[in-house]
């Protein structure tokens, strides 16, 4: 079984060309602290309570990259468990200090599972 620990982050799409507008809204209007760094896909990361909000430019289309990401404690076992049930696992760019993968539920919703590495 998958051993869920906590919700780590949520990724939401923003329209192409609106990165600076998003930065102004989320940092200056909502007052969220931006997490500095060169994040995958040029995403903006903000601290929101004890989790992160990730914003990434995305063109409209049938499949969105929006997703919640859950920290778990047994990433390899979780991958094997999902694959045994015929669920396709996909990968994305590497993030230092984290191993991760993605999958879709039967309804097209995208999820990320991740585990922090020492």
From TrEMBL:
Q: Name one Pfam family in it.
A: Glyoxalase
Task: Report the InterPro entries cross-referenced here.
Answer: Glyas_Bleomycin-R_OHBP_Dase (IPR029068), Glyas_Fos-R_dOase_dom (IPR004360), VOC_core (IPR037523)
Where in the numbering of this chain does the VOC domain appear?
6-116
> Gene3D superfamilies under this entry?
2,3-Dihydroxybiphenyl 1,2-Dioxygenase, domain 1 (3.10.180.10)
Protein known as: VOC family protein
| Naturally occurring in which organism (per UniProt) | Larkinella bovis
**Lineage of the source organism?**
Bacteria, Pseudomonadati, Bacteroidota, Cytophagia, Cytophagales
């Amino acid at each position: 079984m998958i051993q869920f620990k906590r919700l780590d982050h949520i990724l939401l799409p923003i329209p192409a060309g609106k990165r600076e507008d998003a930065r102004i809204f989320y940092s200056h209007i909502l007052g969220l602290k931006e997490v500095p760094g060169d994040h995958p896909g040029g995403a903006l990361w903000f601290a929101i309570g004890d989790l992160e909000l990730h914003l990434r430019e995305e063109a409209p289309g049938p499949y969105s990259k929006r997703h919640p990401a859950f920290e778990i404690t047994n990433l390899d076992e979780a991958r094997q468990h999902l694959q045994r049930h015929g669920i396709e696992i996909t990968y994305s760019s590497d993030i230092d200090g984290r191993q991760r993968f993605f999958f879709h539920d039967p309804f097209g919703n995208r999820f990320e599972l991740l585990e922090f590495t020492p």
